[in-house]
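Dear support,

I submitted the protein below through the web form. The confirmation email said the job was done, but the results page showed an empty box. After a refresh the structure appeared. I'm attaching both so you can tell me whether what I see now is the final result or a partial one.
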Amino acid sequence: MEYLDFELPIKELEDQLDKCTIIGQESDVDVSNTCKQIEKKLEETKKKIYKNLTAWQRVQLSRHPNRPYTMDHVRALMGDTFLELFGDRGFKDDKAMIGGLGKIGGQSFMVVGQQKGYNTKTRQYRNFGMANPEGYRKALRLMKMAEKFGIPVITLVDTPGAYPGLEAEERGQGEAIARNIFEMVRLKTPIITIVIGEGASGGALGIGVGDKVFMLENTWYSVISPESCSSILWRSWEYKEQAAEALKLTAQDMKKQKLIDDIIPEPLGGAHYDRETTFRNVEEYILKAYNELKDLSTNELLAKRMDKYLNMGEFKE
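What the results page shows now:
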């Protein structure tokens, strides 16, 4: 397990607990009471740290290298039923954007999401989860296919942003994202969107329009990352913690502003501490949302979706 800077007190106690256990196993000394005291202190420390996380600490948790990515969720939720589909039928297949058909609880879904890598090699292969225009066009192709066959769509958002390279701009990055938003607003099938990690800028919005939008507890969703905001306002990344607070980017902030529908709880310590519980929670929210949407007529579905987004940003003095 890798530890973040604010998790170091937990690491120290876990190391002490491991040593205590080893002493008990390798000697005749009874250390059971000592181990219990350490366990109790460890649990109290975890609760104290994770119940009082700052916005920046939640950003750090959303980027934790052990955190489950899109393919982890897909494999856990859909298992062997998942069939990955490739290519945008125009340029090439974007490895940063994955998509395909699968079943959850016996119901077929078209799932689309950004995929990050686990090590240096796979991060380069997946372009660090930053999709090119062909990735967004592939996502739209799959969503239009789902619409054709009456299959609900799930989008899993986890990206530091759309790829900002020259070649991406040459191939129409802005147009591809705008086209996705335009088409998703009027897609004639239910869309369930879940932010499972980072939800940065237009890269997230390109697959972020949904009838139901959820965020995992320790994720963030914003027009800009704290580091980029800090570098623009203060010409330095040193103020990223202040920027994170000011941006109101956490799931709790988003729910308060009525920009998302609900927050999916994570195990104490984050999704990576207990993946199975995280996957069960995500599945529960997906099926609950689908059951609420499945009986709506197409006109009702589109009207509710349009109203949902038209009502965002209203302000009364």
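Response: this is the final, complete result; the empty box was a page-load delay. Residues 8-26 form the longest helix (19 residues).
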